[in-house]
């Protein structure tokens, strides 16, 4: 039997503003992923830079921080078997031009930065991100 995992998932500001958060959340729930924590936040620069620390110094970093802090987003922890890999498959590649047909980013992303969703990319990242976003979770 596959491992039960947790992932941090963000519905980014571009998706919240277009009122498609519910549609996106339904994709996860319809695929057997359970919401175990959820909140709405508008990020300050410091929090956003810590979340995306691995990308500091890259050409797209400023644009990424500007867009992720632009308005409210929804943060959640999803749980399920092989959650990390399955959620990233549901999301599709970060560049919507490369995201497979029917994936969330293929359906909804505006461009390579405002691409509607974030999800943890491995168990170590998931642990770090969940502790950063939901310190109250055990
Ligand atoms: O989000 P994901 O893990 O799929 O991609 P990433 O490579 O970790 O990049 C994080 C985020 O930075 C992406 O989701 C995009 O919003 C943004 N990005 C960008 O604006 N331009 C790029 N060339 C690569 C990433
Ligand atoms: Mg990433």
UniProtKB/TrEMBL annotation:
Residues 4-137 form the Nucleoside diphosphate kinase-like domain. It is an enzyme of class 2 (transferase). One of its GO terms (biological process) is UTP biosynthetic process. Its cofactor is Mg(2+). Its main location: cytoplasm. It is found in: Cytoplasm. One of its GO terms (molecular function) is metal ion binding. The active site is at residue 118. Gene3D superfamilies: Nucleoside diphosphate kinase-like domain. CDD domains: NDPk_I. ATP binds at residues 12, 60, 88, 105, 115. Its EC number is 2.7.4.6. Keywords: ATP-binding, Cytoplasm, Kinase, Magnesium, Metal-binding, Nucleotide metabolism, Nucleotide-binding, Phosphoprotein, Transferase. It catalyses: a ribonucleoside 5'-diphosphate + ATP = a ribonucleoside 5'-triphosphate + ADP; a 2'-deoxyribonucleoside 5'-diphosphate + ATP = a 2'-deoxyribonucleoside 5'-triphosphate + ADP. Major role in the synthesis of nucleoside triphosphates other than ATP. The ATP gamma phosphate is transferred to the NDP beta phosphate via a ping-pong mechanism, using a phosphorylated active-site intermediate. PANTHER family: NUCLEOSIDE DIPHOSPHATE KINASE (PTHR11349). Belongs to the NDK family. This is Nucleoside diphosphate kinase. It comes from Inconstantimicrobium porci.
